[in-house]
């Protein structure tokens, strides 16, 4: 285990709604005068030091947040583990000896350890929701495009989002109110969809930990299968495959040229994913896009005004450092929001053998404020 920070700072005190709150910044976001490393030493060597803050950082600072450090991230944000072959594994105080979850690992760790109040992170395929679940935190993946990613290193631009991790819902709402752009949709969440077909895939221990939190929300619960009567839309595993294909394609488009020119050393998981991404062709992408379109339509149909999808944020608690995770099982739970560009909120729900697991609430695109109010 290691410190969540790769660089610590003594930032100036400021006034504003976030005054007095400490901000940990994932090392994908630019800080003026500070190198951006994206979790890889070769990236650090081959990119200039930024002269301006990323937009998200600038907004949080302008609202009074005080930066206390840049945090460890999984390499180029392409992992859900929270491990980094170059910088180590940030501590998870909620599950000692276990991973914090990635790729916003350092930001989650800093918040869970009490060394920051707000952890700025990104979520492409679950990189805020997974560490929130593993570390017992609150975290929001916003509607795609509602928080600026200008000045942040991309992974898969049509999936990438920027959000925050906090220890409580009130701080999450304060920070996201600063970051969210555009007009919120009106109306509260009045009903939960907890689809039988998705919950049937969840381990009994996780269901026992998370389901009471679903019931405790006091809203009507609909168990209708998510993929029932879905026409051409494939089941959940096909949705995961489509997500993984499109993410890989976009990641290679974003970084393939740099990788071929600079030959960075990646950890084994990240290296394998980039190697596989280089082999994809347009036919793979076209097939995945068809599934994505179907899932997006399904989200609009299943999550009308006032309805939120309620499923576990992760299949179980954080795995022990050195063990191999079931990445596919994780992505099956996180891919629906990613494919549809929808907001997804992770909240602490319960424990499995004393280790935290989270509940994930997904709304239709634009429903971010509804989820924050529900939290």
- Encode the helix/strand succession as letters: EEHHEHEHEEHEHHEHHHEHEEH
Q: Looking across the biggest beta sheet, what order are the strands in?
A: 1-3-2-4-6-5-10-11-9-7-8
Helical segment tally? 12
- Architecture (CATH level 2) name: Alpha-Beta Complex
Domain Amidase: 12-181, 265-372
Protein name: Amidase
Region (Disordered): 86-106
Enzyme class: hydrolase
What does the model show?
Keywords: Hydrolase. One of its GO terms (molecular function) is amidase activity. It comes from Glycomyces niveus. Residues 12-181, 265-372 form the Amidase domain. The chain has a single domain (1-375), classed as Amidase signature (AS) enzymes. The protein is of the alpha/beta class. Helix 8 (236-262) packs across helix 10 and helix 8 (236-262) packs across helix 11 (327-340). The model has no long low-confidence stretch (mean pLDDT 96). An eleven-stranded mixed sheet has the order 1-3-2-4-6-5-10-11-9-7-8, with helices on both faces. Helix content is 36%, strand content 16%. The protein has helices at 41-46, 55-62, 105-112, 129-135, 169-179, 196-199, 204-216, 236-262, 268-277, 282-302, 327-340, 368-374; strands at 5-8, 22-26, 66-71, 118-123, 138-141, 161-166, 191-193, 221-222, 307-312, 344-352, 355-362.
The gist of it:
36% of the residues lie in helices and 16% in strands.
Summarize this structure as a short list of keywords or feature phrases.
hydrolase; Amidase_CS; single chain; 375 residues; Amidase signature (AS) enzymes; Amidase_dom; Amidase; alpha/beta; amidase activity; 11-stranded mixed sheet
């Amino acid at each position: 285990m290691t410190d969540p920070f790769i660089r610590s700072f003594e930032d100036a005190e400021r006034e504003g709604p976030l005054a007095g709150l400490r901000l940990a910044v994932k090392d994908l976001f630019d800080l003026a005068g500070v190198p951006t490393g994206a979790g890889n030493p070769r990236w650090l060597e081959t990119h200039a030091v930024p002269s301006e803050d990323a937009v998200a950082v600038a907004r949080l600072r302008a609202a009074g947040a005080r930066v206390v450090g840049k945090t460890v991230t999984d390499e180029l944000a392409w992992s859900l583990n929270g491990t980094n072959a170059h910088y180590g594994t940030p501590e998870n105080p909620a599950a000692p000896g276990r991973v914090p979850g990635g790729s916003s690992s350092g930001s989650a760790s800093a918040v869970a350890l009490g060394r920051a109040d707000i952890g700025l992170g990104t979520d492409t395929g679950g990189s805020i929701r997974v560490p929130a679940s593993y570390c017992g935190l609150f975290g929001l993946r916003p509607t795609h495009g509602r928080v600026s990613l200008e000045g942040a290193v991309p992974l898969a631009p049509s999936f990438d989002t920027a959000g925050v991790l906090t220890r409580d819902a009130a701080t999450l709402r304060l920070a996201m109110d600063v970051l969210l752009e555009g007009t919120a949709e009106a109306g509260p969440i009045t009903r939960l969809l907890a689809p039988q077909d998705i919950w049937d895939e969840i381990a009994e221990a996780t269901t026992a930990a998370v389901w009471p939190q679903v019931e405790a929300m006091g809203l009507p619960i609909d168990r209708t299968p998510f993929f029932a009567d879905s026409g051409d839309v494939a089941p959940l595993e096909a949705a995961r495959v489509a997500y993984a294909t499109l993410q890989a394609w976009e990641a290679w488009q974003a970084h393939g040229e740099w990788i071929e020119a600079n030959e960075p050393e990646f950890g084994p998981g990240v290296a394998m994913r980039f190697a596989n991404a280089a082999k994809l062709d347009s036919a793979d992408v076209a097939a995945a896009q068809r599934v994505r379109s179907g899932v997006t339509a399904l989200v609009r149909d299943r999550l009308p005004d006032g309805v939120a999808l309620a499923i576990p944020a992760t299949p179980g608690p954080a795995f022990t450092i050195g063990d191999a995770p079931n990445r596919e099982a994780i992505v099956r739970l996180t891919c629906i929001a990613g494919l549809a560009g929808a907001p997804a909120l992770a909240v602490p729900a319960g424990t499995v053998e004393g280790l935290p697991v989270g509940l994930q609430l997904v709304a239709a695109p634009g429903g971010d404020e509804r989820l924050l109010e529900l939290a």
